[in-house]
Amino acid sequence: MTEPMFGTTKLIRDMSPARSVRRSCSNIGAGAVASAGIIALVRSLPTIVGRSVRGFAEMRASRVGQAIAAKLRTDDDLPVSVTVFGSIVLAIILAFLPQIGVNLLGAVLIIVFGFFFTTVSSRICGQVGKLREPDLRHDESRR
Questions:
Q1: If 0-12 CB within 10 Å is exposed, 13-18 middle and 19+ buried, where does residue 62 land?
Q2: Average model confidence (pLDDT) for the chain?
Q3: Cα gap 30→85, rounded to integer Å
Q4: Is residue 5 within 8 Å of 24, Cβ to Cβ?
Q5: For residue 133, what pLDDT is reported?
Q6: What is the pLDDT of residue 101?
Q7: Residue 5 and residue 7: Cα distance in Å, rounded?
Q8: How many CB atoms lie within 10 A of CB 107?
Q9: Distance linking the first and last C-alpha atoms of the chain
Q10: Alpha carbon distance 33, 40 (integer Å)
Q11: Concatenated DSSP letters for the chain?
Q12: pLDDT, tens digit, for every residue of 67-122?
């Protein structure tokens, strides 16, 4: 390069390794992590939407008094009403605690981003766990 990059005053070749990492690599790394999170969120949207629709349908059916088919205990989720009202209470608590220092909009954004990225992180944990799981079918030493 013949001119300094945006945000720097020196050419990369004139910078120390530590300064070049501080000026460019950390920004590239943060951008890569943010991009991966957004891509994972887009890939998780069908799961999020499908589960939300099913949860609200179950809530509506329980209010009308329709019997829900017997489910396994492990298939039973936390009721959507508990999640929604709990999130509202949490946002109010976050907004009015002086130690946190956020307003109501910031508290709502914390809840919304937490909701979406919980789905993203659980999906990533499942994928990493599946990659690291030994394939016992082809492990001859276990036979």
A1: middle
A2: 77
A3: 33
A4: yes
A5: 59
A6: 85
A7: 6
A8: 21
A9: 60
A10: 10
A11: --SPPTT-SS-GGGS-HHHHIIIIIHHHHHHHHHHHHHHHHHHHHHHHHHHHHHHHHHHHHHHHTPPPPP--GGGPPPPHHHHHHHHHHHHHHHHH-TTT---HHHHHHHHHHHHHHHHHHHHHHHHHHHHHS--GGG-GGG-
A12: 556 667 676 777 777 888 998 998 899 888 888 888 889 888 888 888 878 877 77
With beta carbons less than 8 A apart as the criterion, state whether 110 and 94 touch: yes
AA identity, residue 22: R
pTM above 0.90, yes or no: no
Classify the C-alpha dihedral 18-19-22-26 as positive or negative. negative
